[in-house]
Queue: 3 jobs
Job 1
Amino acid sequence: MPTSSSCSIRALWILTNQDTVLFSRRFPVVEKRWRAARERDKSCLEEYNVLPCLPTDSEIAAAFIDRNKREGSSRGFGVRINQSVKGSDSWVDDPITRHIISLCTKKEENRILWPLVLHIKGHYYILVLPLVEPDHLKTYTRMCKRSDCGNAAGADESLSSLLLNLPSITGAFMVGHMIGDIITGDVTEPEIVISAAPSVGGLLDSLTGSIGISARAKPVAAPVAGSTASGAATSGAMASDVPKIGLRPLDRDVIRSFISSAMPFGTPLDLNYTNISAVKINGFSSVDIPPADQKQPAWKPYLYRGKQRILFTIHETVHAAMYDRDEIPDSIKISGQVNCRGELEGLPDVMFPLIGLDTARVELLSFHPCAQVPEHGNEKQALMFSPPLGNFVLMRYQAFCGMGPPIKGFYQLSMVSENEGAFLFKLRLMEGYRAPLSMDFCTVTMPFPRRRVLSFDGTPSIGTVSVAEHLVEWKIITTGRGISGKSVEATFPGTVKFAPWQPQRLPSSGAVFGNMEAEESDAETELTNNMANVEDLLMDKMNKDLQAVDLEEPFCWQAYDYAKVSFKIMGGSLSGMSIDPKSVSIFPAVKAPVEFSTQVTSGDYILWNTLGKCPVAATPKA
């Protein structure tokens, strides 16, 4: 029987987008525990139709295909609709059923297998089945058959309260995400950026010596330090040659190797791919044994040996929706993280004050398990941690922008004919920003995913323009010609011509949305008779053939006009977060240089067409 704080995995499957099982792994030790728990609770099988044992790979694939048909997609509806069937996930009427699903096998009289954590990465579907108690399964099966919808206030049973009592669900998600990263080759460490100009010797010189002296910031690679000189060299090569895993026979060997080390017998121990790879390559030696009075943490399986230093990088990502409309306020949010690399011998503690925690108006805050965080509330929040090996994320946060938008202005696009549009950009970059903040590059992209661009006409006030088949790209500032200590105004009027419009009727989800063809035909006749604005008529004609909104992406009609901005800002954070290298203390005291840098990049920084449609979420008034 699983305890309240344990996480054990009964099995996992990896399916391709052709709904075939590429890889599977069952854990007999955990399955034996499930069978023992099931034997103690006979009603689990007799009354609640719970699957008695694990299905075969072919049964899993068939059940997954059946669920996709029944629920409309691999994720499912997440809400109860007219087509929902009693006993299905959508019948529960909770969006979490798009991520924690159940499967029914026909061979076992539609018995249920739950909870299956579904993680989609690339072209793969990863299913992870954690061990839960029979009572939890019985509770879920009752939810699948009740007549009322959703999680009503005061209800005796709800899916949210059930999952709160299942920490194994969180562990299963972590396993699924790590497996997804491995099979798609996305196993990377957080980026640490330092200045390449000063020479600090050792590893940094070996990384930057062949490049030459430059005033530009350089990212630090993440080689894992070995316990010996030869081990360090070997592990450095390993870090630079991390396999980019794709559809190769080697995939199964890599996954098997990771599973056998990270979660032997089905219990996750260490899901850090870097730690596991380093241990396999370097092994252990007598010098890796810590002093008797110190306990070696799980995140540092062996000790670092070499030149000592500490590197910090605050990396912020700016997400914005700029409307330039009186009735819709602009929205700008920052997602940030403090990346660290502590190359320190032994098991020291590092402490420093984090500046700007209050002024940054932080909404969410989370820390690495190695950190000890007291109650915060002061301007300078003291943070103590014992650094693990390699690059790691010490802290994550979400905050409001402490300054104005780095790029403000508007974008307008108007269709002057069926195959030609006139557009206008008027932007101001870095207004109100002072040195040392500098913009490294800035690019604006106009995507046209359903129109083929033939040509464009127009000259921007600054920068260069290039055209691809489905987009126009405006490079306002190019790398190497950044701006600092001043604002720049950029305008770009022009026209873009498209290939003749060819309506493409895409199959709509008729079972869910009804007969969209007939409705659109009627709507077209009415609009043709009543619409006085020729531009609106042209836009409607272009958009009427777009695919109906899919529940997978509720805002992606592809009918909205927008431009996307990409940029990088160096020299400081936009939230106000900062670290003073002189305030960093190490216990016991050692001589180790401390370097600090910041980097701000754009996320989804969107300029919505002020003359077109745009999605907006209502926000509560303060």
Note: The chain has 13 helices and 26 strands.
Job 2
Amino acid sequence: MPSTSGTVNKDLQAERDKCTFNNEEFTLWWVGGETKLKEKRFREDFFLNDPELQEKVPLHFLSHKELYEESVRKATVAFRKVRKMNEMGQDGVDNYSALLGGLLGTGILKQGNPLTVHYVMFLPAILGHGTPEQQAEWFGRAWNCEIIGTYAQTELGHGTFLRGLETTATYDERTKEFVLHSPTLTAYKWWPGGLAQTANYCVVMAQLYSKGQCHGIQPFIVQLRDEESHVPMKGITIGDIGNKLGMNGVNNGFLGFDHVRIPRKNMLMKNAKLLEDGTFVKPPSQALTYGTMMFVRVVICRDMAAYLSKAVTIAVRYSAVRRQSHINPDQPEVQVIDHLTQQYKLFPALAKSIIFKLTSDNLWDMYNQVTSELDKGDLERLPELHAIACCLKAITTADAAAGVELCRMACGGHGYMTCSNFYGTYGMVTAACTYEGENTVLLLQTARYLMKAWQQAQRGQELVPTVQYLARFLSSKNRRMDWDDSIGGIVRALQTVAAGKLRLAAEHIEQRQKRGATLEEATNQTSIELARTADAHCRAFLVQSGCEMIEKGCATASPELAKVLRTIYHLYAYDEALKSLGDLLRFTTISESDINRLQAKLEDALTELRPNAVGIVDSFDLPDDVLGSPLGAYDGNVYERLYEEAKKSPLNQEPVNQSFHMYLKPFMKSSL
């Protein structure tokens, strides 16, 4: 990737010179081939070099209102350019994915895109929940942005617990209409992106009532604002929820209904249906209602890998430029990246960004396969997809948030600067720990699935791929697995940990029931164990999936690249094992000497990666405008860029600030 200033920092260049593999080969593998890479680079050049999309004033110097207005301006410019690409024959869903994702998208709109929910949730909701007739009516207009939509599910008083939602949609048989109503303040919709000032339509999730009965949560299309004036429709109360830790360009809003009437055809009826006489027809599976959320969770996993790769790229490059302290007193200060503790902060996070991306690709394939099976009426693998998507969303978001923060701290005081872009990246990542399912709740949903799988395994029934290890665990005569520090042995050990935790949780639920607790009470009393079981299951899946995907890449890679990829994966596996030592001691025969050997293997992997760390992050092929950080620019001119950023402060645009004459000088001249 070319330097932005012409002169590359000599230490950073020296790192590139010592790289043992071909960067372009890694990049081709990383993005999915030559065609994908060519399209990616064309797209980045097309968007990032457009003056209309350049940042004129750093966003952190704008007011909340100014930031939103700038975000809307940029979003409309960007999506007009997507249309232009379509006219040029450069069409495809990848253009939308790039603009809405954690790389190019946040390079252009650093505080989030107010149209994201329109594309990521409103459109998929119409496809996933709408009949062919409803899709014909709504999808074309929405795709062309003749209308802008959002997806309103979370309320002021309820989030992840969907059955607790209070918004009602009551069917009026006389007029063949639904009456949407917010009976309490806590029933107000709260958080939907684009809701406050951007969208004029919405898919609303509400409790359906007909013939005096509640039929649960169903989706409805509701017009929020007039299509010409944008004034809120009668009975609609709508607004902005205020400033947040991050994502302040997303335009999150609140929404209340005062007996708002919509026609019967506005209930999306691909799955559940309501007949004209008010008769409710159940869907073949209640889980079909949650298809949109599963799609979004798959997308989130991919975005977490992207955000973490940005943070790691910034921190690794900065650590190669920054010199701090001596290792040998008689020699000059060393690069920070030469300190083993710094390598241990950064390299496992680097490995995670790669494993998360590969596993999200794996999950994406699984999602598409299950979706095609659903269209044929085959629901068999839906629970498995739901379970693995839930725990992967929880683990990747939590680990990415911790990884971004670790990268920030690894950059010392300069990492604390807003312009370093750790703050903005952390705001994006940590939000994902909560939206589309709070992480603990999602882990418990996975645990509920694992409990059912455990019962199936005990009965000797056939198990789906992600839980087949339970059968091996049950067939083993030894409660503790013989420790084996090969990669396959670590995978089996982590699976044994998950199975052992699951066995104990099942036993404890049974014991609590025998002492008089109901199943629900016993499950709640065992919920800490259950969440940890789901965590262990997910981490075992990540290590196994990462191994399979890395080996798949190595099959076609050069020996030099294959060696680096395996080192990355080995580091990830060793790190996960060492962080699970307490559990490995409980469920395997690992000994102190085994632990020492495992620690030595991890340190060897750090040493092996050290010469290639900059080469690896360079191979992510992230332009400077996507990184958005003076600490991580390709040329490594950290201090010059930090100084230029400091000069942009509004306080530096005049030699004396008015507060001196208004407040400080009178205070200093007054007698105390």
Note: The domain at 437-609 is CATH 1.20.140.10 (Butyryl-CoA Dehydrogenase, subunit A; domain 3).
Job 3
Amino acid sequence: MAAQEIESGTSWGKELWDQFDNLATHTQKGIDFFERFGNFIRDRSAIEVEYALKLRRLVKNYQPKKSKEDEENEFSSLIAFKNVLKEVADLAGQREVVAENLQNQVLQNIMLLSKILREERKKALNQGAGLTQSLHTQIGTLDRAKRSYEKAFREAEKAIESYHKADADFHLSRADVEKQRVNMNIRNSQSEDAKSEYANQLQITNKQQQQHYQIALPEVFNKLQELDEKRTRGMKEFIKRAADVEYEVSPIIARCLEGMVKAADSINEKDDSMIVIEKYQSGFQPPGDIPFEDLSKSDPDASNNSQTHNSSTGLNHMTGKGTTKDKLKKRVGIFGIFTGNKEDFSDLPPTQRRKKLTAKVQELQQKVAQEQAASDGLMKMKGVYEANSMLGDPRTVEEQLNESVNRLDRLRHELGRYQKLLEQANNQTFIQHSPQSNRVTQNGQRSSRHSNGSSNHENSHEDNGEDHPDDAGSLSRSASESSVQQAQNGLNINNNGSSASPESGLGTSHTSLPGSGQGSTNEQPMNEEYYEAETPLGTCRALYPFDATSEGSIPMSEGEELQVIEVDQGDGWTRVRRFSSKGWEEGFVPTSYIECTLYA
């Protein structure tokens, strides 16, 4: 690898052999720039988090306020805007994903690589500095050896010159000449030794210098080149990774934008216009033409009275309640007309009143169905206790059953009252809009009457100020029982499809309870039908162990197989049968604790 780089001319060790300081500065600046890029990613991630937070705050601030009336009649534009807000919230979530991925997948790796690069650079620079210091030391030794050699050489030359002068001087004794000759020999010997040392140090220095600039220092420079290229590759990879983070969320962002477009396409101006009509339509007819009053041919007082009557009649149609002109000014807007503060909604215009009454009837029908299911469950539990006293005392549920029956009677009575009010409101509408209203009303009434005590129940409320209690009671009873039947079918109640079945014990009125008098004769048929249904409906397996702590329940262990005698009636309990050492045992277990398999 290094040989290929040297041959290709891209090796720092070969091309930049004398640029140690510049390479040290360059690599430091490169790492600083790399860390600055990391700071850029960090700040961008913070901006993404802030952007997502502001988007969520924007969605929260512009979230429409919820109201029951608006939920029933929501404009398509409002629904679309809510969907847009949801998509914007999803966009905020994607920006948070981008911020998290930038921090975890880019920023952390940048910081880690930067730390590694700094450590490798420091190590390489220390190595290069050591090599340079070693070479400088050797060059210093060479310089000292050279200076010693130069000094010894000059002294040797001087000693030779002194010897030749002494030898030519006839006035000096032979001893003085010999002394100069010995000194010359010593100086020559010292000069040769210094020369040899200098030559030796020069050879060592040249060899070390060659090793330094051709092998040792290039290796250091190549390491610096390698870490600098690693930094550059890191920049390349992390920029791509930051873009990939955006690419990864772009399909979801695209779906969010598609959702916004879809929400916009769902807006229908015609449907919104119809909602406005349904929301604010009063149901009144526009006032008719004001007749011309010829004062010359009629009584002036009568004309004034007729004109006053017609004007007030026209105003009554316009305001919806006969509101006077002064009172009309006090209205805060059209919303005030349809508030409906009275219990029978008589303060509303006909159309709005019918809507409120219809909603009230549906609400009461649902309550009746729920209460009917609860009563049936209590009645069946009471029957089980009466059939087998080992399971529990029937008197424990008798009080609850009485309260449930009373609540059911009150709900049915209230349901009948609102059904009659709704029928009257519909009749008034037919009178205003249809010349055949009498025929429609007559055909729309139900004349069937149940013989299971409903007449007594309805007669008990004849003093409520209603014009036709019998018809209202018939309508109330049939409609309420129909609603109960629908709710029971939804709950899979096995009572032969009738809320007035002998099994329920409630269709025959509250007097069917034990000890209440008239209804006591209905107990035997109920028990007979009850025992006819003792055939297992299926099997079940216990998902969890259950310790029977309440009266009427039986214990079971996890995985135990049991027979289903009666399915859950909406109270959260299922009646099962199991075989033990004592024989067959029956009782109730929590429905959520078992997995049932019913027979086809």
Note: Confidence is low (pLDDT under 50) at residues 1-8, 302-339, 430-533.
